[in-house]
Amino acid sequence: LSQTLRSIAPNRRGVLVAAAAVKLSTSSTLRLSSNLPPLASSLYPPISADGRSLSRSSYSRIEPADLLVFADIIGQNHVITDPFEVLAANTDWPRDCRGQGGHVLRPGCAEEVSAILRHCQKRRIAVVPQGGNTGLAGGGVPVFDELVLSLSRMNRVLEIDAVAGLVVAEAGCVLADLDSHLSEHGLTVPLDLAAKGSCQIGGNLSTNAGGIRVLRYGSLRGSVRGLEVALASGELIDCGRVNEDESRLVQLMIGSEGTLGVLTKVTLACPPRPANVRLVLIGCDSFQSVLHLFSAARSTLAETLSAFEVMDAATMSAVSDNLKLNCPLSGSSEFYALVETASCDASGSNDAGKLDKFLECLVSLNHESAGSIDAVISNDSRQFGAIWALRERAFEALVADCGPAGGYMQFDAAVSDRLDMQRLVLATRAEFGQLDCVIRVAGFGHLGDGNLHLVVTADPAGAAACGLWPRVEAFVYGWLARRRGSISAEHGLGWKRSAYLGHCKSPTAVSVMAGIKRLLDPQGILNPYKVLPPSALSY
């Protein structure tokens, strides 16, 4: 099983589908238990100052009679109890934790989701909504034995309005598939992620995913024109093309990670599909040079600037060492910037002047820094994809340092001062980089919105022996609290970060969030143990 999951994980493609193709008996699954990720419940952060561990809340356990009800609603074939398929749904994409759920339901429409939730509310059965299961914070997998509600069958594109630039799609639509449908109408999804081949639009909205083109299209929530949501009670709320009053409810659901309702349908505003795209990879000797380039890009490239990504040398080394991907630049640099431009001008004639001005700034900055800047412009689609792969596979490369089981910790921080992106990496490296067990401290992310992905990799045995990971968490979250940064920019809080919400939110804000949760989900059945610290809720 562990080999199968490893072979699937690099592309984050169809874990459940691949799992269904492999036939293992229950005894075979049990024999592999020593190679499985640790239980999420055993990794859950202490819920009190005295170190008390999380315990399962008093939810009802699923009985045979419940399975009969679910089979009546969605059909027996979509009530999944096969151990292998259930295990796949319990294991998150990084393979660093797993839940203990014994059942997966795959409804085919919003009405079936509604009926399932009505029964779960009546019986007080805890439910975990699950999309493509590509999350990094544990938000889409059970902590204990919650029922997994997979939306993978709800993958239809219902309507495309090319004139208005709108698409209506079910929540289970895979992001890349949705974008492919839109391309036939000259439109594109205003979101691009490394996991686009597996992640689903409902899951993207549940975490308010950012991605590499926030700089061009803004936050995903700004493109939402309507939602259909199933509440914990089973009631369906359909805010189609919303008015001003409904938009407040829609915005409440976005980023709630399935704790307030289950997203079943979305209406998105989609921009015209770019016809001319260029990509420049730049090596710089300092982070200050990267910031100068960013300022130059914003002023010279203007509306054509679609992405500005940054990677440090440690990240590029991991990509080269572990994935054997080659950087096309002639020498090594301390930092690497990926600058993408995009426009609807197929000829590119209107954009050439802007790109020329940016390149002039690049030459000038190179002269000022004594020739320490290197750059390459993609010449064709093959090189374009190869350059983007350096950035999009960065996390995969870093995890390959040591394997997922206790060998890494990743942070999804947001800062307002862009220099803090480098400062946090340097501070973490200075604090832990000299420890024998630490392999690498690396940083990469979206410079446009100040979103840093900080990754620390280490030998698992050594990290456990010195209690490394609690120390790293305390250090990074404390640093962000002092700098008024956020502990989660786009990956969500899940259960991995819920205990640290107080580092970026006041007690009053957490109390208000808990009040909203109790109002919309009075029995707490939707995605329990996630987002809010357990101390904030009592059922």
UniProtKB/TrEMBL annotation:
It catalyses: (R)-malate + A = oxaloacetate + AH2. GO terms for cellular component: mitochondrion. Residues 97-273 form the FAD-binding PCMH-type domain. Its cofactor is FAD. The keyword Oxidoreductase applies. SUPFAM superfamilies: FAD-binding/transporter-associated domain-like (SSF56176), FAD-linked oxidases, C-terminal domain (SSF55103). PROSITE patterns: FAD_PCMH (PS51387). Keywords: FAD, Flavoprotein, Oxidoreductase. The keyword S-adenosyl-L-methionine does not apply. Its EC number is 1.1.99.39. It holds the Pfam family FAD_binding_4. Signal peptide: none annotated. One of its GO terms (molecular function) is FAD binding. Gene3D superfamilies: 3.30.465.10, 3.30.70.2190, 3.30.70.2740, Uridine Diphospho-n-acetylenolpyruvylglucosamine Reductase, domain 2, Vanillyl-alcohol Oxidase, Chain A, domain 4. PANTHER family: D-2-HYDROXYGLUTARATE DEHYDROGENASE, MITOCHONDRIAL (PTHR43716:SF1). Catalyzes the oxidation of D-2-hydroxyglutarate (D-2-HG) to alpha-ketoglutarate. Also catalyzes the oxidation of other D-2-hydroxyacids, such as D-malate (D-MAL) and D-lactate (D-LAC). Exhibits high activities towards D-2-HG and D-MAL but a very weak activity towards D-LAC. Belongs to the FAD-binding oxidoreductase/transferase type 4 family. This is D-2-hydroxyglutarate dehydrogenase, mitochondrial. It comes from Macrostomum lignano.
